[in-house]
Amino acid sequence: MSGALTITSEHGLSPVARALITALTTELAALYPEDAGLVFSFEEHDVAPGRGVFLVAHAAGEPVGCAAVRTVGEGVGELKRMYVRPEARGRGVARAVLAAAEAQARRLGLRRLVLETGVRQGTALALYRTAGYTDIPVYGEFLGNPLSVCLAKDLT
User: Fold this and answer.
1) H or E stretch covering 24
2) 105 in Cβ contact with 123 (< 8 Å)
């Protein structure tokens, strides 16, 4: 990977978005084989203008990562589908995508972001925690899943 990193908003059902989400889903299925059939909700309307955003990071013109923000309550958003292709990892892409997602959340008027990740995703957990996210109780559709870790960050 070489060249400048650009992060742009993209339609959540675009071929690029679908390819990145498929790669993420495949990686998670291998990491969590006991939950391989479990897919948590994420719909196109979640990232409709004014409600959310789907971001794609490109390096040298190639899509290398993504993240989505969706509004889930008054002033609260959820970070979803955060992913960086393996060949682009360790180069600051995830941190840049996370910062862009937080900036978009602020533009949407959100004051807090929550997210769910898994206990086997140590690199992701480290990224979120060094970016100011703190552990919160497991929420919503993740309740009862011992593999889930939920985090939050106040954006104000």
Assistant:
1) helix 15-31
2) no
Nearest Cα to Cα of residue 53 among 88, 101, 18, 85: 101
Reported as a single tens digit per residue, the pLDDT across 16-71 is 999 999 999 999 989 998 875 566 566 777 888 889 999 999 999 999 999 999 99
pTM greater than the 0.90 cutoff:
yes
Residues 133 and 150 sit within 8 Å (Cβ to Cβ)? no
Is residue 108 a contact partner of residue 55, using CB atoms and an 8 Å limit? no
Residue 42 sits in which domain range?
5-154
The CATH number for 49's domain is 3.40.630.30
Instruction: Give the C-alpha separation, 50 to 2, whole Å.
Output: 33
What is the total count of domains within the chain? 1
Output the six-digit token pair for 83: 């992913």
